[in-house]
Amino acid sequence: MAHPLSKFAFCPACGSRRFMDNDEKSRRCADCSFVYYLNPSSAYVAVIVDDNGRLLVERRGYEPAKGMLDLPGGFADMDETVEEGLSREVLEETGLEVVSAEYLFSLPNEYHFSDFTIPTLDLFFRCKVSDISALHAGDDAAECLWIPLDEVDPSLFGLSSIRRGVERLLTQR
């Protein structure tokens, strides 16, 4: 697979075609000296377990990994805190309101979208929600499901970091 920076043919600052590899993670314009670093995008992942020991999972409604399982979450927006972004993503995808979040761990990932590979850093949080009766699939979630922790199969999760995160969660419980 080609490096994601190979998709950048023109300098975003001046439009020059002389936008060349600078090192393994950046390109530099030979005309205006602008340097662009492809750093990972932040993404949030919510781990929500109810009082009956069931994990809230979603079925993905869109590519990548359409039809596979996922955990609620998504990309950071500009000008929002981690707490705001995590709460926004959970609300958009599940209708649930996050009342508390505890950071667990992070995992690097690659997210393939529109023929482009976006490097991500996925931040996992254990979340408490206010009222699970409000649960409904929204945004890019086709379906929301509660699965007992002892029945969760990591191989059914479509994104590699989520699969690795679920494996880690199951071994730590």
Commentary on this structure:
- With 173 residues, the chain is of the alpha+beta class.
- It is 15% helix and 40% strand.
- The chain is built from two helices and ten strands; from the N terminus they run E-E-E-E-E-E-E-H-E-E-E-H.
- The strands form three sheets. The chain has a four-stranded mixed sheet, sandwiched between helices. It has a three-stranded antiparallel sheet with strand order 1-2-3, with no helix packed on it.
- A hairpin with a 2-residue loop joins strand 1 and strand 2 (26-29).
- It is elongated, with a radius of gyration of 19 Å.
- The two termini are 36 Å apart.
What is the topological layout?
Layout: E1 19-23, E2 26-29, E3 35-37, E4 41-47, E5 54-60, E6 69-70, E7 73-75, H1 82-94, E8 98-113, E9 116-129, E10 141-148, H2 160-172
Parallel strand pairs: 4-9
Antiparallel strand pairs: 1-2, 2-3, 4-7, 5-6, 5-10, 8-9
Defining traits:
alpha+beta, 173 residues, elongated, four-stranded mixed sheet, 10 strands, 2 helices, single chain, three-stranded antiparallel sheet
